[in-house]
Design goal:
Oligomer: single chain
Structural class: alpha+beta
Strand content: 25-35%
């Protein structure tokens, strides 16, 4: 009897929740990203327009630390050698916030600069080392007046170098699915049913019959008597 009661209780009562370890719980989506969906988004060292470090590469992202009303605290880049992160601020209304973690948030691009040693044409040697090439990791573009510079990283140090030529890179497009609403498709008009020759003939016969009936009805009606006949 006790076994029967226990069996009925196990069927009627809900099962007790199983304990779940912290490792089995899904990780919260705590990382928030925003894209530079325009070419004039500055990364500032402080919450001030006078502290601009560089323009973010167009269509690339910053990781948002704290979203503010006027400025948002952000991080650009990652601490994976040979790269380093840059912390700063962006104007909140210049960023486009997204609800996913991009596959390629930060641009990885090298630029090579050739340095020429002034007055190196020497009386000795053949000038092999009169020009030296050096590569830098590009982070963004900045300006001093009308002169253009690149904000770069080399050997763990950030600095500016003159922009001798334009940089080209592949653009991101993954954010467009969220920011551009799809245009609804208009339903195609239903094709009208075409009449078969038999149907057309039946329609003509029906119209003729209806006309004949109307004719005989009108012919059979007597005209109203005039006042003289009364």
């Amino acid at each position: 009897m006790k076994a029967l009661l226990l069996l009925m209780a196990s069927l009627l009562l809900p099962p007790l929740p199983l304990s779940v370890s912290a490792e089995e719980l899904p990780a919260p989506a705590s990382e928030v990203y925003a894209v530079a969906a325009r070419s004039d988004v500055w990364l500032y060292a402080e919450e001030s327009e006078e502290s601009g470090l560089f323009l973010l590469p167009y269509t690339y992202y910053v990781r948002v630390l704290e979203r503010g009303e006027e400025y948002s605290s952000v991080v650009y880049g990652e601490d994976i050698a040979p790269y380093r992160t840059v912390e700063g601020y962006c104007k909140t209304d210049m960023l486009t916030f997204v609800g996913f973690i991009p596959e390629r948030p930060f641009l990885k691009l090298e630029v090579t600069v050739t340095y020429t040693v002034e007055g190196a044409a020497s009386e000795m040697g053949n000038g092999t080392f009169d020009e030296i090439e050096r590569s830098f990791h590009y982070y963004g573009t900045s300006y001093l007046g009308t002169r253009r510079y690149y904000y770069v990283l080399s050997d763990g140090v950030f600095d500016y170098i003159p922009a001798e030529r334009d940089v080209t890179f592949e653009l991101n497009t993954d954010y467009l699915a969220e920011t551009v609403a799809p245009v609804p498709e208009e339903p195609a008009p239903e094709p009208s049913a075409a009449l078969s020759p038999v149907g057309i003939a039946a329609l003509i016969v029906g119209i003729a019959a209806l006309s004949a009936i109307v004719f005989f009805v009108l012919r059979g009606r007597k005209p109203a008597p005039s006042d003289e006949e009364l």
